[in-house]
Amino acid sequence: MTPEASDDVLVVGDLMVDIVVVPSGPLQHGSDTPAAIRTVGGGSAANTACWLAALGQRVRLVACVGDDPVGRGAVAELAAAGVEFAGDVDPVHPTGACVVLVDPDGERTMLPDRGANDALRPATVERALAERRPAWLHVSGYTLLDSGSRPAALAAMATAHELGVPISVDASSASPLLTVGGARFLDWVTGCRILFANDDEMAALDGAEAALRRAEVVVVKHGPAGSSWVTSTGSWSVPAAPVVVVDTVGAGDALDAGVIDAVRRGFEPQAALEAASAVAARAAGTAGARP
Q: CA-CA distance, 238 to 227, in Å (whole number)?
């Protein structure tokens, strides 16, 4: 039975709690370095979902949290941001958490413990797709890169292909991409409408030419140098929107949301990148990964 169509964007991936650490100076190994520390909502997929909601999209997030106060708080934060939680509560694993070290120029280094995110099941994403056919599916690459959640991500994309739902995927992180292999990752995302990757991730995927054998469009995030939209027939680039950087946590997730929102509104590539660049600048100019 074909599910009832909706105008939703369905996002599949991680829901985390970020512990953001901004040291006052170079880390003093074996001693103390004063730092500003805050706890905020995180997870690449959850961040993108929240930015999509802020842009006016109806959004559901399929993720997995632990049966703990942190998980209940994370789901409540999603609801407050206008995102419907369509995932699971796992009775065994704790809610995922990530320590984010932010250096003086705003760049971040992450130390994640994915926790319950690795327990996301294929049945959960299939249920969400069966309840309402979304207008768009976005998958965080972290869900593909970790073996525990990979079957769920693959099931989501397979079902979306069957239903004719356009798919976007974010490559997420260069180091795990190198571990699983770029060619293998590209096999998993074959047929997606848009593949998002930064320069390091694109190198791990063997470049845009290789990626375009599997994806219709590749959007490359160049950080402070802007972003590019690449197809087999042409490319477009825009500079980063001017901003005083507070931290770059979530800026890439925000850019994903900006592109998806712009494409769904019918923007051409150049205009879509410009709109997305403005959203990414909003993220980079504020503390934390969400609106």
A: 6
Domain count of the fold of the chain: 1
pLDDT at residue 1 tops 90: no
- The structure tokens 């991730």 sit at 201
Answer yes or no: is 222 within a domain: yes
Q: Given 3-state DSSP classes, what are the helix, strand and coil percentages for the chain, each rounded to the nearest 5?
A: 40, 25, 35
In 3D, which of 291, 290, 289 has the Cα closest to residue 110? Answer: 289
CA quadruple 118, 110, 45, 79: dihedral sign? positive
Neighbours of 5 (CB within 10 A): 12
Q: 134 near 165, Cβ under 8 Å?
A: yes
Asked if residue 59 has pLDDT above 90, the reply is yes
How much of the chain exceeds pLDDT 90, in percent? 83
Cα distance between residue 271 and residue 79, in whole Å: 30
- Three-class DSSP category at 147: coil
**How do residues 193-235 score in pLDDT, each as one tens digit?**
999 999 999 999 999 999 999 999 999 999 999 999 999 999 9
Residue 274 lies in a domain: yes
CATH code of residue 205: 3.40.1190.20
pLDDT in tens, 246-266: 777 889 999 999 999 999 999
Name the strand (E) or helix (H) holding 282.
Answer: helix 269-284
3-state secondary structure of 165: coil
The residue-averaged pLDDT of 4-8 equals: 87
109, part of any domain: no
Containing structural domain, residue 136: 9-15+43-94+114-284
- Pairing verdict, β 83-85 and 88-90: unpaired
Give the CA diameter of the chain: 62
Q: Tokens 């909706």 sit at which residue?
A: 6
pTM over 0.85: yes
Would you say residue 20 lies in a domain? Answer: no
